Amino acid sequence: MAATSPKKKETKPAVKKPAPEKKAAVKKPVKKVEEKSVAEEVMEQVHEHEEHCECCSGDDSSEKNGPRSYVLRDVWYESLSEVIEKEDMPEKNKREMLFLTLSNAMLDLVMDIIPADYAKVVADNIDDFLAITVVNKENNIDLLAKFKEDFVKEKGDTFEDEEQLQAALEEFEDKWWNTKRKDLKSKKSPNEALEEAAKRYGID
């Protein structure tokens, strides 16, 4: 199990999947830390309710994103393009406005269709993901990859069970996300850099 992204205004990263229930008299096999991409980390957080949600089938939810993009094109693109084409501005600005309008419409769609119980969790995780992406881009770094690398160096990559792995993560992550780093231009801690980025864009 890899580390999750940090949760703003707290000293620990965002929502983690609950540890599996204990099984009496069962010794779990030795487990290694799994390597996951940033996208996989975020999707795990956003969809962590699937295990207990009757409406979720367990299928790959991104499988139909290609066809979905064509549906959205047919629903939005022509009308939005007509509106923006009428604006008196340079072509570059029109393209940017089209991108921003479509991005805003997509985010509105996501928030509208998600059950209220999960909307806040999804919104917070989107904000965390965006803040991490900004900090990564500005510092030419991958915070989650660095976390995993430093975690393995200090704690190793072999654990007897999920509980031992979870305990090691909880002990390590608070210190890591709040320790100043030389590979960040601001020389601040990852959490400080993320909070700064979130405030700059108004998503704090």
What does this structure look like?
It is extended and about 60 Å long. The protein has about 200 residues and is mainly α. It contains seven helices and two strands. Mean pLDDT is about 80; it is low at about 1-5, about 5-45 and about 50-55. The longest helix has 24 residues, at about 115-140. The chain has helices spanning about 40-45, 65-85, 90-115, 115-140, 145-155, 160-175, 190-200, and strands at about 30, 160. It has a two-stranded antiparallel ribbon with strand order 1-2. Helices cover about 60% and strands about 0% of the residues. The chain has a domain at about 30-60 and about 115-200.
Instruction: Provide the structure class.
Output: mainly alpha
User: What is the percent of helical residues?
Assistant: 55-70%
The description of the largest β-sheet is: 2 strands, antiparallel
Form type: extended
| Proportion of beta-strand residues | under 5%
The Rg value, from CA coordinates, equals 20 Å
Q: How do the helices and strands follow one another from N- to C-terminus?
A: EHHHHHEHH
User: Helical element count?
Assistant: 7
Mean pLDDT across all residues, rounded?
A: 78
Q: State the low-pLDDT regions, or none.
A: 1-5, 7-43, 52-57
Q: How do the strands of the widest beta sheet line up side by side?
A: 1-2
